[in-house]
């Protein structure tokens, strides 16, 4: 299973863009990159998933370079409610199994 | 559509006892996965069930077992509880063609 490395914590202020980078040097050809968000005492919530290049949805963007050994989650104009732990995962393609490995995550703290 | 539900939400047991946790997935989701979350080890994958069959298994001892019923509801059982089994146990469901997991609120198990 591909191991991921993320910063343990990050601090930001409301209205700023936050970029969280994840390293996954041993990513397999079939692996997708997925990001989850978790608030205290809640289960993780899916944010975004991608395979290569750039993916954007209504809450975030995911940038994946050509070698796919890293990825960057970009949160535009964060607010206090974005304070949470963000997990980067690499794992099987959709429908291909679900043995996903969560890393230690990045604790994002957003202040006024 | 109702989300993933888990019962009970909180549980206190003593060492040596056994416990059964229940998870009801989102309607139509046939895959159910279980995770253990502790402050020291983070989120760890236990196992995944699909159509009543265990499809993937994490690195946990045989004291941890699970099953899935024909209506996709799943149960997880832990026998001979140890203090280290105290954790938040999360259940997640997904459709067969997607990697997007929907997590329940978890069951907080405390072993005394």
Model description:
The complex is a heterodimer of chains A (112) and B (112). With 112 residues, chain A is an all-beta fold. Chain A contains no helices and nine strands. Chain A has strands at 9-13, 18-23, 32-38, 45-50, 53-56, 61-64, 70-75, 84-91, 106-111. In chain A, the strands form two sheets. A five-stranded mixed beta sheet of chain A has the order 1-9-8-3-4, with no helix packed on it. Chain A starts with 8 loop residues before the first strand and ends with a strand. Chain B is mainly beta. Chain B is built from no helices and eleven strands. Chain B has strands at 5-7, 10-13, 19-24, 31-38, 42-50, 53-57, 64-68, 74-78, 87-94, 102-103, 107-111. In chain B, strands 2, 4, 5, 6, 9, 10 and 11 form a seven-stranded mixed beta sheet that branches. In chain B, strands 1-3-8-7 form a four-stranded antiparallel beta sheet, with no helix packed on it. In chain B, a hairpin with a 5-residue loop joins strand 7 and strand 8. Classes of the chains: A mainly beta (112), B mainly beta (112). Chains A and B meet through strand 4 of A and strand 4, strand 5, strand 6, strand 9 and strand 10 of B.
Give the helices and strands, then pairings.
The complex is a heterodimer of chains A (112) and B (112).
Chain A: E1 9-13, E2 18-23, E3 32-38, E4 45-50, E5 53-56, E6 61-64, E7 70-75, E8 84-91, E9 106-111
Parallel strand pairs in A: 1-9
Antiparallel strand pairs in A: 2-7, 3-4, 3-8, 5-6, 6-7, 8-9
Chain B: E1 5-7, E2 10-13, E3 19-24, E4 31-38, E5 42-50, E6 53-57, E7 64-68, E8 74-78, E9 87-94, E10 102-103, E11 107-111
